[in-house]
Amino acid sequence: MKQFVTEESFWELFPEAQIGIVVAQDMRPADEVAEEDAAAIRRRLSEANGAADQHLTSNTISQNEVVAVWRDAYQKFKTKKGARCSVENLLKRVLKGNPVGSINPSVDIYNTISLKYALPMGGEDIDAMDGDIRLGITEGGDSFLALGDEEEAPTLEGELCYRDNAGAICRCWNWRDGVRTALSDDSEKAFLIIESVDPARSADLQAAIDELAKMMSEYLGANIFAKEIITRENPTMVIDE
User: Which residue numbers delimit the B3/B4 tRNA-binding domain (predicted)?
Assistant: First the structure.
């Protein structure tokens, strides 16, 4: 059995945070996704790039409320210089007229949700995890190789990150995913995370995980093993048996 565990060190920093989790199992490999479904996912991603404009009221990325709350959040823990919330990176592309393109069906689905709701989102391969996945402040030195990099970049002391027994999974909370647990074309089990630090957006978070679960089921034939919102009062959940 594997669990997702949010540690007290996280809640001490973000007592009102909410983390939406969808666990999708038995996903179709990318090469078995029907072309009509793959095309529908790409269309939804394109629409989400357009929908993201509603969240961008300023041409200065940091002055948009959905980004500003994360800039503030990142001041509360140690980060690598220049690290930014994942949704800021997506919205910045939209702002510059460089829409987020297709990668693979599962990643396209979670980018669609992230753009539409302007909430950071990530996805990990459960089968690649070593034990439970934990979110909390680390003592540093956790092994980590970021997607697209060639050299390891271990975590810093005081950094907030997702990690398992083998090292970090995503650094600086939701900045960059690692190679080791990244979703691939052949992943069967996905741990999908949507984060919110703004209590006023609870309804958006619920809508986001509902739509995410529906898309994973409809287009990838996934069985939704779990769908839950993690809070300080509900800090752990089973993600795999």
Answer: 68-221
